[in-house]
Prior knowledge:
By secondary structure, the protein is mainly alpha-helical. 61% of the residues lie in helices and 0% in strands. It is elongated and about 45 Å long. The protein has 5 helices and no strands. It has one domain.
Amino acid sequence: MLRLVLGILKGAVVGAAVGLGAAKVGIGGGALGYVVSGVVGALVGIVCGKAIWRQETLFTPLLKAIFGFGIGALLYLGAHKLLGGMHLALATGLGAPDRPLLEVPFLFGPLVGIIWGAFIEVDDSGSGKAGAKAPGKPAGSSTKA
């Protein structure tokens, strides 16, 4: 449960940071929206889960980043098809521009980060210590003869 909350928090922070950066540069929606969501997915893939220095190989975070880029872009595509021009009245009331959700990267970026970060953290939560046993022995066997 703690890992899930940690993944949600890490994903939200990374998504908000990338989204704010994209908004400052002037990136809204369109084709660059796929890239922004992909970058959020890639960075969340690197940040969430096991730390880079604790991985067995450096290919694992690289693969999580590459796959995360694809997941972020696919989440943008799915939201584009499902949500279309949905506006968030609460966000507009708090000072966000009155544009569709997908055209405001600092609102959509955290959503991508939360979804992918929660999945990565829960997936990497298995430490292997609880299910560790001697190879070749059944779970209920003892060492006494």
